[in-house]
Automatic annotation (TrEMBL):
Function of the protein: Molecular chaperone; assists the folding of proteins upon ATP hydrolysis. Known to play a role, in vitro, in the folding of actin and tubulin.
Spans annotated as Disordered: 1-22
Subcellular location: Cytoplasm
Principal location: cytoplasm
SUPFAM superfamilies registered for this protein in UniProt: GroEL apical domain-like, GroEL equatorial domain-like, GroEL-intermediate domain like
CDD domains in the record: TCP1_delta
PANTHER family listed in its UniProt record: CHAPERONIN (PTHR11353)
Domain of life per record: Eukaryota
Organism: Lupinus angustifolius (Narrow-leaved blue lupine)
Family that this chain belongs to: Belongs to the TCP-1 chaperonin family.
Protein name from the UniProt record: T-complex protein 1 subunit delta
Amino acid sequence: MAASAVPQPRSSKTEFYTDNKRKEDIRHSNIAAAKSVADAVRTSLGPKGMDKMISTSSGDVIITNDGATILNNMQLLQPAAKMLVELSKSQDAAAGDGTTTVVVIAGALLDSCRLLLTRGIHPTVVSDSLHKAAVKAIDILTAMAVPVELGDRESLVKSASTSLNSKVVSQYSTLLAPLAVDAVTSVVDPEKPEQVDLRDIKIVKKLGGTVDDTQLVKGLVFDKKVSHAAGGPTRMENAKIGVIQFQISPPKTDIEQSIVVSDYSQMDRILKEERSYILGMIKKIKGTGCNVLLIQKSILRDAVTDLSLHYLAKAKILVIKDVERDEIEFITKTLNCLPIANIEHFRAEKLGQADLVEEVSLGDGGKIVKISGIKDMGRTSTVLVRGSNQLVIDEAERSLHDALCVVRCLVNKRFLIAGGGAPEIELSRQLGAWAKVLHGMEGYCIRAFAESLEVIPYTLAENAGLNPIAIVTELRNRHAQGEINAGINVRKGQITNILEENVVQPLLVSTSAITLATECVRMILKIDDIVTVR
């Protein structure tokens, strides 16, 4: 009897248990880190969401409630937390709006997954169930969507206004929303209507005035003055515009070296040669009929010298210098001309034409150069954003970018869906009903997925200062009665038909948020160890 009481060695079981414990710890630490990031941006969701003040390492201050901007400026160390930053960037690239929503949904899903894991459900089962639920969710959202035509400008403006309502500059949504719609529709190519490149819309920021002074310009705008160095013209009608990428200055040697000239006659000869070299270039330019020059900024040597500016002024050629290299493509597309890399290739057929190029004073000390009446203008547009300080201008630019992205989403996928938490609560209801039909662990996991989607209406109500439990309960009740477009009206503080209140968003924003959040959560779930390579 004594011999049988000796405990048997349980080494294999003990090792297996320890191994599992470590894997669970890694998963739980990843979920906790990602969840804390989601909680940080959760308070900035919706029209009544709070703004964040971000102080960067360089001492700059940013005030915003744009999820992508907040997360981009966070200094995160934990790898799983960084995945939520990448998730926000993916949503920004795919849809442009809903960057806060996607992170909040991911955080809620992770919280549900943590509870499922603690109940002993295997991560692979949870992951597969999430995938099935996401596919079903996309079908439900598509069935809820309302088709929209590009000619229906009013619907496009409503959608852009909804995206602007949660921004710092929301009071200017009546100006910025139509402006965003006009900017996008002006660059849509009839041959490829579903492809919109936002690089064809240039946003020029100019300090001074208020956001009310923001305008859409049919032409080109440069945030710089005309070169006044030698008293050249500041206004040119019937302009023939050349975009040059070479320097109108004396040539330099290819290698860094010094030449010492001790003879005065040799010095005169060098200066004479320089003058004749520059004069020869300007005569060639003038001979083509060119009267406006846009000169690309040069790194190796001065793009223009005082002497060349003097001769250009004598030739009555208007000069805009220091044009950035990355602007050249946009400028040439707008002017329908070709950039000229060498004086030998300077020909009249490479020039762009416009009715007027002039320097415009903005009344508060600032000046811009405006090119209008461009002949055969390319499909581009320019937005001049004004603001009383740099913080307001930067936030206006970010908000306008979101509005442009929303209109682009509608061009790509022409369906609208209600906002105000309506799609999320409808998803929660229908997925919950579907989970009851399924058997085993799958149904259990999908029910948890459905419940976690209620975080969006709950957070909207919480941020608006309403009673979230009462609001979400009433919202659930209204959807159960068949009102699929019932949502939270944060202005009135009650449940209304959100489509009638013009709170709409593109279908692509919602479907992209669900798909990307699910992918990210599944990826985090599958991680059972972190290996650090030094």
